[in-house]
Automatic annotation (TrEMBL):
Pfam families xref list: MFS_1
Protein name: Sugar transporter
Keyword terms of this UniProt record: Membrane, Sugar transport, Transmembrane, Transmembrane helix, Transport
InterPro entries associated with the record: MFS, MFS_dom, MFS_trans_sf
Amino acid sequence: AISAGLFGSLSDRFGRWKLLILFTIVGGLATSLIPLIPTFTNFLILGSFIGISYGAYFTVSKALASDMSPPEDAGKYMAYYNIAVGGSSGFSALFYGIILEIFGTSYRIGFTAMFEMSAAFYFLGLLLLYTMRGSHRDPTKLLT
């Protein structure tokens, strides 16, 4: 919340797509490194990068969703955005609970699987962002 103004200004200056791609990569790399460097200090450092990426991503993605929404249907498209964000938050708790149930709760197996799956979702999101870039002028193309 503290950095929302900063990331909003940066996205105005450098472009929303560039920042979304940058922070998706930063968040994905930091998440994938947590199981490889299992010390508390590294967890705090990498967790800071994840938190910054998360905050920047949601600040900039909401601005981009607003930019892409046709003025006459802005409410509808922002509702889609909020459903996607809220739905993914609800789904992730269930999904990662299942991952821990399958792999166990040991750091070496269960939590490693959870962090690596999280990193995979970051990079899947990066792929989706990359494929959506061409449709930024016509948001109706995103739904077809």
